[in-house]
Prior knowledge:
Layout: H1 2-5, H2 10-14, H3 39-50, H4 55-61, H5 66-84, H6 102-105, E1 106-112, E2 115-120, H7 125-138
Antiparallel strand pairs: 1-2
Helix pairs in contact: 3-5
Amino acid sequence: MEDEALRTALDTRTGVGPELVSRAELLGPMVGRRRSWSLEQKLAIVAEAQHCDNLTALARRYDIRTSQLYTWRRELRYALEVQNGSREPEPMFVPAVSRQSAQDDVVIEVEVGGAVVRISRTAQADLAAAVVQALQVVR
């Protein structure tokens, strides 16, 4: 019965014949364990990294990965930008404005001898009168 307890349930599903487990390996302290760093520790390491020529050696000294060091530097830079105010303007809403068609701008439409003249509201009065007089002379 004791031999049966040592067989794994996965042996029947994987097609591997049942074998007795003869030994178990105990793992030592986890090398890749997750550690928590205080804010003061992070700031001290990042401050030291600013004056360091070899970031890889610095990361090894503190037993961290270089990517972690770069992440802390980026997070500090973002925090300082937020604290000092962002250099980039914040996004804002700009309403969409459609252009008016040429017909919306027409105020007066004059027909002289089969020719149609459309005069906009921004046209000068003396210019409009001159155009109408010129059409009357031509027709």
